[in-house]
C-alpha cells in the first residue's frame, strides 16, 4: 500500500512538472507572438507617421515639379522682357505675365496638395488595415494560448482527481477500520 502511494506521488509530481513545462512553453510562445505583434505595430505606426505627416512640398517630386515650373516661367518672363525692349511693351504687360505666373504656381501647389490628400487617405487606410490584421493576429494568439491553458487546467484537474481519490479511499478505509475496532 505504501508502495502504491509512492507510485501515485511520483506520477503526480512528474505530471505536475510536465504540466509546468507545457505552461511555460505556451507562455514563451505567446510572448514571442506578442513581441512580433509589437514590432510589426511599431513599424506600421512609424511608416504611417512618416507617410501621413510629411509635408507634401518636401517630397522630391514636388520640389522637382515646382523647380521646373519656376524655371519655365522665369524663361517666359525673360523672353517677354526681351520682346518688350524690342517692341516697346510696357512694364504692365510684364506685371500681368508675372501675376499669371503666380496663379500658375498656385495651381501647381493646389494640384500637389490634392495629390497629397489622396496619399494621406491611402496611408490612413493602409494603417487601419494593418492594425486590423495585427489585432486579428493578437486575438488569435490569445485564443490559442488560453485554449491550451484551459486544456492543461482540465488535464490537471483530472490528474488531481486520479491522485487524491485512491489516497482518500485508503484513509477513509483506515479511519473506518479504527472506528470499528
What's the alpha carbon Rg, rounded to whole Å?
39 Å
Helical percent range?
over 70%
Structural class: mainly alpha
SS summary, helix count: 3
Number of strands: 0
Taken from the alpha-carbon principal axes, the silhouette is: rod-shaped
- Main sheet? none
- Average pLDDT reading: 85
Q: Order of SSEs, N→C?
A: HHH
How far apart, in Å, are the first and last alpha carbons? 21 Å
Uncertain runs with pLDDT below 50, 5 residues or more?
none
What is the percentage of strand-forming residues?
under 5%
Description:
- The protein has three helices and no strands.
- By secondary structure, the chain is mainly alpha-helical.
- The chain has helices at residues 2-53, 60-87, 91-180.
- Helix content is 94%, strand content 0%.
- The two termini are 21 Å apart.
- Helix 1 runs antiparallel to helix 3 (91-180) and helix 2 (60-87) packs antiparallel against helix 3 (91-180).
- The model has no long low-confidence stretch (mean pLDDT 85).
- The longest helix is centred in the C-terminal third of the chain and has 90 residues, at 91-180.
Set down the secondary structure blueprint.
Blueprint: H1 2-53, H2 60-87, H3 91-180
Helix pairs in contact: 1-3, 2-3
Task: Offer a concise description of the structure.
The protein is mainly alpha-helical and 181 residues long.
List keywords for this structure.
181 residues, mainly alpha, 3 helices
Amino acid at each position: 500500500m505504501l508502495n502504491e502511494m509512492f507510485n501515485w506521488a511520483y506520477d503526480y509530481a512528474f505530471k505536475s512538472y510536465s504540466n509546468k513545462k507545457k505552461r511555460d512553453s505556451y507562455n514563451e510562445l505567446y510572448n514571442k507572438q506578442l513581441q512580433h505583434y509589437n514590432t510589426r505595430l511599431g513599424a506600421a505606426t512609424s511608416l504611417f507617421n512618416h507617410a501621413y505627416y510629411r509635408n507634401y512640398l518636401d517630397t522630391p517630386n514636388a520640389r522637382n515639379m515646382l523647380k521646373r515650373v519656376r524655371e519655365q516661367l522665369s524663361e517666359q518672363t525673360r523672353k517677354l522682357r526681351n520682346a518688350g525692349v524690342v517692341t516697346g511693351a510696357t512694364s504692365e504687360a510684364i506685371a500681368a505675365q508675372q501675376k499669371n505666373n503666380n496663379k500658375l504656381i498656385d495651381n501647381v501647389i493646389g494640384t500637389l496638395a490634392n495629390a497629397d490628400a489622396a496619399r494621406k487617405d491611402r496611408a490612413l487606410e493602409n494603417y487601419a488595415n494593418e492594425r486590423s490584421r495585427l489585432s486579428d493576429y493578437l486575438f488569435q494568439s490569445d485564443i490559442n494560448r488560453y485554449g491550451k491553458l484551459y486544456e492543461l487546467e482540465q488535464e490537471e484537474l483530472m490528474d488531481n482527481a486520479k491522485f487524491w481519490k485512491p489516497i482518500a479511499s485508503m484513509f477513509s478505509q483506515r479511519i473506518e477500520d479504527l472506528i470499528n475496532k
